[in-house]
Amino acid sequence: MFQVFVNQVGYYPKSKKTAIVCEPCNGFTVEDMKGNVCYQGQWTDFGMDALSGDHVYRGDFSDFEVPGRYIVRCEQGRSAEFEIGNQVYDRLMYDVMRAFYFLRCGCALEKEHAGVYTHAACHTGVAMEWDNHDVKKRILGGWHDAGDYGRYVTPGAVAAAQILYAYMLFPDVFEKQKLNIPETGSPLPDVLSECKWELDWILQMQREDGAVYHKLTTAQHAPFVMPEEDREQLYLLPVNTVATADFAAVCALASRVYRKHDEPYANKLIFAAEKAYHWLEENPYFISIQNPRGCGTGGYGERDDLSNRYWAAAEMYAATGDETYLNQTVKMRKLPFPRLALGWGEVGGLGQMALLTSQYAVEQSILQQIKNEIMQEAERLEAVANHCGYMAAMTEYDYVWGSNMPLMQHGMTMALADILEHGNRFKETVQKQLDVLMGVNALGISYVTGNGEYAYNNPHLRPAYADGIDACMPGMVSGGPNRHPSPRDGSANWIKPGTPPMKCFVDRYECYSLNEITIYWNSPVVFVLAALMHKR
Ligand code: 9MR
Ligand code: ZN
């Protein structure tokens, strides 16, 4: 561990750059890799930071703008190496996107694209309905959800949607991006090829009548084996209104995004979305989600389906321009759901994104209301960030299982506020959230594998453990600090009671409540990076 904390990937030349140290010392230097002192600065005393328990000193070196590779040094020690440059996040974005490729299911990962992280085709067996073993379906594809090998519709829809919204809002970032995936070289932008892998899977999760299965998993999580060695029976878990709504939403959204590249595919998507939506209308009551007895894979339960139906209606309107959907959307706005949540469960904010990006007219008063809500929330988040020594827009209650998700989603909200204002007011604070993820945090750790001199490396991720290779595949975003670590995953051996929230983390593979990875922890990082890389 280093004593001085910086964003271990680095900064754009003109970005705000802040190093942090937790003991008093006399100034700092920025040194290049030859040890030349390139810049000298002073620490300012922030005082005690409640959520880390640290006395924080900040060293600002924003006006040092010369591209290169550096460390920050002071009498307490040094920082990890980092870069200042105009392409500083290209590699990080590449890795964070390629993580989805590494999670592909139903195909082999070949050396050409996967390097040393190859494996044979996995989960190719025939699945049967949990409640009716006579109904059998062979469904290939999709991304493994996380450290486990399950494939779940709602988190899958959310992860793909966040990437698709990023593509819509920041197309310049992705147009020419090459991800070295099997589809690279095809006319479709690589990011859309990667999302198509998930969408093609999700399409198969729809039943004839339009309803959508909740998940496709084995009865219990597999042991820590390679995916192709997980040969237990696959099951389709019962359809419900939440999965069906999220399905409709993401398919409608995808039909908008893919239309200019692939008309027949867009038509197929919107047809499936309409069918799902129709089923929703015929099933107006929430169908709850519970793991049936004997099934121990991810629950992804939700308390209601209100925000999911709202997102679906809004996306159906944005994709078709059909007024009936708009009227339903407007009605649903009166329902009690969190306005700006970005998933995995509550998705009201994705509904707002649908309306904000719609090509078809939405009443000005509604757009204004959404804008006000987003601005207010962005201001709140900025204030929270200013209150934190590390500038994380995180309250105590955000340090949950997968806290890097709220961290990045808060970045998303502030980035959205800037888009709506056609300005840069929150850009600095968005950047800070990335800085926190990449090392400006109480443990000085980078929460993205392979990125940063002191990056975590032992996620709760089956192939990363089972492949026997020391270095984890790059680009995997850890769940991060959780002030309520699970009593069942060994975390208690490492996190003593009373540990400050920001320090409730350990880089151990068994500690799933602290150090798992999931697709919907990677996807908001894609969004935040795209916001920062936009128009550079
Ligand atoms: O991300 C989910 C987190 O918000 C919940 O608190 C946690 C416990 O229910 O479950 C997480 O989701 C897991 C899912 O159930 C199965 N795949 C791995 C996910 C990440 O741990
Ligand atoms: Zn698989």
What does this protein look like?
The chain is 38% helix and 11% strand. The chain is of the alpha+beta class. The protein has a domain at 115-362: Glycosyltransferase. The strands form three sheets. Strands 1, 3, 4, 7, 8 and 9 form a six-stranded mixed β-sheet that branches. A five-stranded mixed β-sheet has the order 11-10-14-13-12. Strands 2-6-5 form a three-stranded antiparallel β-sheet, with no helix packed on it. β5 and β6 form a beta hairpin. The model has no long low-confidence stretch (mean pLDDT 98). The protein binds ligand 9MR and zinc ion. Ligand 9MR binds next to loops.
The Rg value, from CA coordinates, equals 23 Å
Low-confidence stretches: none
Separation of termini?
32 Å
* Helix and strand composition category: alpha+beta
Q: What small molecules does this complex bind? A: ligand 9MR, zinc ion
The best one-word shape is: globular
CATH topology call of the domain at 115-362: Glycosyltransferase
SSE arrangement, N to C: EEEEEEEEEHHEEEHHHEEHHHHHHHHHHH
Write down the overall mean pLDDT. Answer: 98
Helix % is: 25-40%
Strand proportion: 5-15%
Helix tally equals 16
CATH architecture of the domain at 115-362: Alpha/alpha barrel
Structure summary, number of beta strands: 14
Largest sheet: 6 strands, mixed
Main CATH class of the domain at 115-362: Mainly Alpha
